[in-house]
Request: fold
Amino acid sequence: MQDFKVCITRLHLYLDKVFCLYQQNKLEAQYAAKKDAHISEAVDLKQQLEMRANEMRALNGTIDSLKSVNDELKVRLKN
Reply:
């Protein structure tokens, strides 16, 4: 009977270790998934930022062009 109790105790300890490893693996998988999602989001935001920067450059070029056209019109109107 004593051997049976020892076996049950060992089995219980083993199952506790297995469960802990399962929980650890589960948490590591969740962490990896969240990390991948955050990396993907950061890449998307970086692309959006680059697109906005390109838009800003294009708009600044347009503004400069319109300013020069406006200055030409002012000169022509004075003459």
